Amino acid sequence: MDLFRVPIPQIQRPKDMKVIIWIEEDQLDELIKGNTVDYWEREPGVFEKVIQVTVDTDTYQKLKDRKVITEIKPKPYE
């Protein structure tokens, strides 16, 4: 047996896998339309009018790719 030719299994996610996110209630229609919405990956806790939504992995990846990452710049040393 040639050890250098052993196939490496590809990691694939199941098609029926779901991801839970939390969004504000008024953004539900935008999410259904396929638009970008702000979301939390963990339960936000004290915010009102936040709902838990289950989305498929493709929708979650699209939201994650479109999410604006705020860069925190350190203040200059004085």
Per DSSP, the total helix count is 2
Beta-strand percent range: 15-25%
Low-confidence stretches: none
* Content-based structural category: alpha+beta
As a percent range, the share of helical residues equals 10-25%
The biggest sheet, with number of strands, parallel, antiparallel or mixed sense and barrel status, is: 2 strands, antiparallel
Secondary-structure map with pairings?
Layout: E1 18-24, H1 28-33, E2 50-56, H2 57-66
Antiparallel strand pairs: 1-2
Give me some keywords for this one.
alpha+beta, two-stranded antiparallel sheet, 21% helix
What does this structure look like?
The structure is a single chain. The protein is an alpha+beta fold and about 80 residues long. It has a domain at about 15-65. It is about 20% helix and about 20% strand. It is built from 2 helices and 2 strands, in the order βαβα. The chain is extended. The mean pLDDT is about 80.
